[in-house]
Amino acid sequence: MAMSFSSLRLLGYRINVVAILASLFILFWAAMALFGTSFAPHSPGKVVDFDYYGPISAEFPLGTDYLGRDILSRILMGASYTVGISLAAVCLACASGVALGMAAAVTGGWIDVVLSRFLDALSSIPSKLFGLVMVAAIGSSTPVLILVLAVIYTPGSYRFARALAVNINTMDFVAVARARGEGTFYLITQEILPNIAGPVLADMGLRFVFIVLLLSGLSFLGLGVQPPYADWGSLVKENIGALAFGAPAVIAPCIAIASLTISVNLLIDNLPTKIRDRSA
Known about the structure:
The chain is mainly α. 69% of the residues lie in helices and 3% in strands. The chain has one domain (7-276): MetI-like (MetI-like fold). It has a two-stranded antiparallel sheet with strand order 1-2.
């Protein structure tokens, strides 16, 4: 039997090579977000080289930035902001969106109508424009960024969860639970949520990618993480002048963003079908 190049068999079990490699990249960046500054060869904010936009060397594996700071150390610092802010925002967005979506599907009536129309109106605003206006009006800080990013992606999570919950709500086992007198909370937590958990987790991974890209875009425009701290988008903005010199200072954070987002996408694409697509 032919076997896909992306998978192999080991001791009778099929191993998805792409999913494993993607998981390793994700785990690496998760570890760097937690402990990266401990492994940084230099202080992220310290000028350690008088040659700005310095080349790759043994002392500076990714070169130096426009002030002579070590790029590797700053990327490791930026991982905590990029991954941390994006993860907090996607958890908040998906938790609120899924909870509201299931509640709307189970209760129906005017609650469903009001929630759906309000979140539809919110989702009609371009995400980057909404983020720019809110951050410019309120000010850029980590809590504000998390809240704004969560608000932007809650409507999409709500629509996705509601569509899944509506299908589950019409099934016989839910009708039986309702007939024996179970309340709304029981139906949501015991009957509907377990049956939509797989697709919701896959959707959460995709929204994490969207949030990473939007956060990086806001930072590139100067409205994200503020100096002296920096996420990966801020590092690209700071070192955009390195393009003229062919220095790695602007390429390295771009590769970091790409490696994280592509790895998450590949992992989602290679999840087992029964996990990614299960809706009953």
